[in-house]
UniProtKB/TrEMBL annotation:
Swiss-Prot/TrEMBL keywords: Cell membrane, Cobalamin biosynthesis, Membrane, Transmembrane, Transmembrane helix
Family: Belongs to the CobD/CbiB family.
Keyword Cell membrane attributed: yes
Gene from which this protein is expressed: cobD
Subcellular localization, as worded in the UniProt entry: Cell membrane
Pathway it works in: Cofactor biosynthesis; adenosylcobalamin biosynthesis
PANTHER family listed in its UniProt record: COBALAMIN BIOSYNTHESIS PROTEIN CBIB (PTHR34308)
A Pfam cross-reference name: CobD_Cbib
Protein name: Cobalamin biosynthesis protein CobD
Membrane topology classification: Multi-pass membrane protein
Entry keyword Transmembrane helix: yes
Length: 322
């Protein structure tokens, strides 16, 4: 069986597994990776970029290498290759858990239980929930759904299409390291620099695909395209900017503004300034848009891998005819 079909079948099975089962309640491999990366950090930590780069290379590089070894071990056995791809996809994508957590916060807000909503918000993002009112919490949820659609689903599928199982698990390792050490706290400003920059690089193609699919699948295509073009570059993150701007335009809402994150206050630019303030009902709309984008990303990734194989085969034939 060709590699493009193995990826298509395996990624589809893995995404279906995520849709039906969500993340495992216990023993999640990503959590195990986080504990291992934390152990490596305790050994390697120095307030220096070079030591942080070594930490990134050991953790992310080791994970991708393990994925490559597993792939080599099942090479030539299509059923096992599909199963491995499915297992890796189910492990690294988190669209169902993302939607579940967003809806939990939305349900609390609908019930006017702001304390419960604040309690659950850290399951979605790292910002301080204690000073947020209902509208600000709803805005934080929509922003998190948008960004994590790229980080937790689309980016992984893109790298799976590019590099198979090593791409799937390597991308999740990079993304997890960024969440652990990539923020600008005093401890990680230097040590986490390499993880943050590598995450920016790895997330670039997935973020652009997510934004493009939000334009395609959103209820306001023109608004999504306009907000992406006008406002994405104003966001401090090169990858969250396109995604959040496209979601804001697609949903007709206004994102961005002041937030508290990691013990510091940030004043972020407003995205889609002509939109209305986020309402609690927009959480469900954002989750549904995220689901559509995720499914389209699976199709786009599988089709992209097939197209790449055909282009490569055509070039080889042309080279042989010279």
């Amino acid at each position: 069986m060709r590699a493009d079909r193995i990826f298509a079948y395996g990624a589809t099975a893995g995404l279906i597994g995520d849709l039906l089962l969500g993340d495992p309640r216990r023993g999640h491999p990503v959590a195990a990776f986080g504990r291992a990366a934390g152990a490596v950090e305790r050994v390697l930590w120095r307030d220096h970029r070079g030591w942080g780069a070594l930490h990134t290379a050991v953790c992310a590089g080791g994970t991708a290498a393990a994925g490559a070894l597993l792939s080599r071990g099942v090479r030539g056995r299509p059923a096992l290759s599909v199963a491995l791809t499915a297992a890796a996809t189910w492990t690294v994508v988190g669209g169902t858990s993302l939607g579940r957590e967003a809806r939990t916060v939305g349900a609390a807000l609908t019930a006017r239980d702001v304390a419960r909503a604040r309690e659950r918000l850290p399951h979605l993002c790292g910002r301080d929930p204690h000073s947020l009112d209902e509208q600000q919490i709803a805005r934080a949820v929509v922003e998190s759904v948008a960004e994590n659609t790229s980080d937790a689903v689309v980016g992984a599928l893109v790298w799976g299409a590019l590099a198979g199982v090593p791409g799937l698990v390597g991308f999740r390792a990079v993304n997890t390291l960024d969440a652990m050490v990539g923020h600008k706290s005093p401890r990680y400003r230097a040590f986490g620099w390499a993880s943050a920059r590598l995450d920016d690089l790895a997330g670039w193609p997935g973020a652009r695909l997510t934004a493009a699919l939000a334009v395609l699948a959103g209820p306001d295509r023109r608004g999504a395209a306009r907000a992406w073009r006008a406002d994405a570059h104003r966001h401090p993150s090169p990858n969250a900017g396109p995604v959040e701007a496209a979601f804001a335009g697609a949903l007709g809402v206004r994102l961005g503004g002041t937030l508290a994150y990691g013990g510091r206050i940030e004043h972020r630019p407003v995205l889609n300034g002509d939109g209305r303030p986020v309402d609690v009902t927009d959480i469900e709309r954002a989750v549904r848009l995220s689901r559509r984008v995720s499914l389209l990303a699976l199709v786009a990734s599988a089709a992209g891998r097939l197209a790449f194989r055909r282009i490569s085969a055509a070039r080889r034939r042309q080279g042989g005819n010279r």
